[in-house]
Structure formats: C-alpha cells, structure tokens
Amino acid sequence: MAKKRKFYAVKKGRKPGIYLTWDAAKQQVDGFAGAVYKSFLTKAEAEEWMATASRKTTRKVSMRTPSTVTPSIILYTDGGSRNTGNVRGGHVRKEDVAAWAFLIQKDGESISGSNGEFGATNNRMEIMALINGLQKIIDRYGEKAAVLVVADSKYVLDAIQRNWLSGWQRRGWKKANGEIVANKELWQAVASILKRMPNLEYRWTKGHATNEGNVFVDQLLNKTMDRMLREPTEFEAPKKAVSNPKPSLAVQDSTADFEQLGLFHNQQISDD
Question: 70 CB contacts (<8 Å, ≥6 apart)?
Fold first, then answer.
C-alpha cells in the first residue's frame, strides 16, 4: 500500500513554510532554538495552521480582553451526531440524526435546552449549542452577564480563543486557502453575539468524563436524538444558509427528565 503523502509546516525555523518531505523540513528546524513545526495530511490544514498565531501570541491578539468580572453563570454546551460521517470514508446522510444541548447554572437555578436536525454535522451542532445557550443568557440575564463557557469542542473554542474567527471575518469568511468557512452563517451569528457580551470566559473540559455539567448536556442531546428516531416529523433538516440566522427554539426538559438522568435533580429547573 502506498504511503500517504504528508505536508510539513514550519511556523518557526530557519525558513518558515510548507515542505513536502520531512528531510526538507528537518533542515529548517534541526538545531533551531524554539522551532515550531507540525505535519498534516492535507495542504489546506497546513495552510490554516500556518495562518494562525501561536498559542502564546494568540493571548495577546485575542478577539477580546479577558473579563475582569468573576463569572456568576456557568454555561455548558455540547453537540453530537450519529452519522455515517463518523466512519472513515463515510459521509453525513439526510436521515442521520444530530443534536445540541446546553445547561445554564446560576445561584442554584438550572436551565437546559436541546434540539436536533437531520443530516447535520457534529461541528454544526457544537456551534448551535453555543449560540442557543448564549442567547438564552442574554434573554434572561442580559448582555453584560459574566459567563464561564465550558465545552469539550476544540473546534468551537479554538475558533474563538485562537483568533480564527476574526481571521475568517477579515478574509470575508474565507479560510487561509481561500475556501469558504464551513458553517459560515452560524459563525456569523457567533461573532454578532460575542460583540454584545463583553464578560465571557472559556474553559475546555474532556468530553464524557468526570465533569457533571458536560456529562449532563451529552446525555440530554442523546435523549433528543433518541426522540428524533421515535418522532422524526417533529424535527427538520438543516435550512439553507442565511446571513443572520436566528437561534433555534430550545426544547426545555422537564424536572422528571432531569431526575431520570440522575444529575442536578436537587436544583431548581426553570425557564419562565
């Protein structure tokens, strides 16, 4: 079997660039103090990585200055899918189920929301969870609310924290290689919301592990996907892209549903 071709990106070295062989890349980094380099399976991925600032630099040029307000609200978000795209060589089919969920906690009160789409990707659901969770916070607590966003999606968090989002905006919602950003209309909605909310902080957590909030939203979105299989007519396929999409209405869980999941059942469940 032929060996897969790799692309070697040298971000910091004698001569930064993308090389087709490791020997060529090695000449640029071997013995170079503080060299930064990485291999990729596609040239597009290598170009995207080269276009982003390093983690150390990103902290200085991030889209927003870290909030000095102590968060009083925690927002957990998660997205998931059960599609053939999860299998190597597969793709998302129109009948595949996907869902998102969020959980908001503040002063003993918990608010949850979840919904799903047929034929949607996992990444789309991760963004939808963030949009709907932040919009619910705006509606209930206002735009100045101090919020800690906890998510297991590096796709979402890196786009915000590593300045990818602002880069896409500058390039007219295109990646470094000129391709249109996937989920463009959703990222436009995220950018619009972030401008209105100055007191946001972010934290990554390992998915489906020991973080109760993350486990809760994962189980909640899986309940939604189960329901999609039982009652498919209540859910829709992804709509065509629009410039300023409105967040989906969140399907609120009942207290009984929380107790069935075995999490947060001693807290108040409210969505007045």
Answer: 146
* Residue 178 token pair: 């000129």
Please state, in angstroms and rounded to a whole number, the distance separating the CA atoms of residues 165 and 187: 8
Q: What is the DSSP letter of 4?
A: P
Residue with tokens 């909640």: 220
pLDDT in tens, 248-261: 444 443 333 333 33
Mind listing the pLDDT tens digit for each residue in 115-140? 999 999 999 999 999 999 999 999 99
Contact 25/37 with Cβ under 8 angstroms?
yes
The two three-digit tokens of residue 248, written as one number: 């989906």
Per-residue pLDDT tens digits for 31-75: 777 778 888 888 888 888 888 744 433 333 344 445 556 889 999
pTM of the model: 0.66
CB count within 10 Å of CB 34 equals 8
Helix ranges, the chain (H): 22-29, 43-51, 55-61, 122-141, 154-161, 164-170, 184-196, 212-230, 255-261
